[in-house]
Amino acid sequence: MTPLNTTKPYMKMRFKNYDLSLSLPMLRIIEQEDFVHQMQVAESLNINVSTVNVHFRKLQDEGLIKQTERKLLSGRGRPTELWTMERRRNFTVSTIFATPMLHMGLADFSGKVKLQETFDCSELRCVEEIYPIVDSFMQKAFVEVTKVSGVIRYAYAGVPGSLVPETGKVRAAVNMPVLVGLDMEEFFKTRYNITCFADSFAWGLFFGETRNLPENTTAAVIEWDLGVGILFGCGKRIFNFENLPSKSYRYLWDIGHTRIDRNGRKCHCGKRGCIEAYVGGLSIIETLNDTNIKTLPDLISAIESKEENAIMELQKSAYILGKFLTYPIQLLGVERIIFTGLLAEVFDAYKESFADGLKTVFTDEEADALSPSASSDRTANLIAGSCEFARYVFLHPQENIERRKVPSTLGEKRIAVV
Q1: Fewest CB atoms within 10 A around its CB: which of 2, 36, 95, 298?
Q2: Average pLDDT of 404-410?
Q3: How many domains does the chain divide into?
Q4: Mean predicted confidence (pLDDT) in 221-232
């Protein structure tokens, strides 16, 4: 099999510095349409076919696309070459920190996960201990990629904290303090010469949980554990507040810290009356005040054992959450609701109470149409979604780098997910 990245000298001469970004608009069309011919791309970009031909030869030489067949488009004349993306030999890598776990994945451009590992970071004491763990996974990833003479094109590192916008270095991670100082972008570039994009793990979470929905479905992904985080988005976009003042929240994820009672319960973010202070898993545990229920796994075990008080408190919280969400659901045009996080494991225990909360504003038909459901497999979805997001960033680099420049509080004021 022909190795990738064997760029011919004559091709390099036709592009200043051999800048692959010049061909990305065409690559995006190929990725979206699957099979294309050069005239189709030329018309889409309003350029001549000869220019498209040079770019296609460049992308072919890079191993990113391949010619599949010749086809008569009009029933006569010369056959037209059809091109498609070389999905099996191009890969992305993801390293996602979802407290306290590190999830690592390798997937090809078809979205098939070829390798995945999960590591519990609870016992790590310093950031330097993380790099050897990632390196061990990467050595296995390179073995998989070499089997098909492939290339790892991009990496994505997702963290539950805030980053230095210019570098992607972790500057705060209340939920996982061992991450402070972590610089995955520098690590991947220096160690493997692979470009890495570091940002919130919310991207991988949303891409993963919505990847099986119909295209352009507006969804709310609720991560319910010790706290509550809510992602609203459509297709490949998470709705955010990038045009608001810098002190504002970056994502609607932080809607859990919206105040619903000015003199209400004290929230762990420092304010009073936040919705999370009423519905977060930690709030449920504190309200129960049961010596046998000290952690989220304890709470889940009690619910699975049909302990009445635990179920009642969970259902009360689900009702409040459903009622609270009726307004953003209307404002943003949400069509589907998906629960993830540890409390998604006991979804059946509170799904009717959540629906009752929705029905304080919605009709039965409107609430049912939202089809609230639990994640099919949080870890698998997170890894697959993160690798898919890495591929998306590879194809749309500037779009996502601009987004990271928006100040974020994601994860800084939330209690650890366990």
Answers
A1: 2
A2: 39
A3: 3
A4: 90
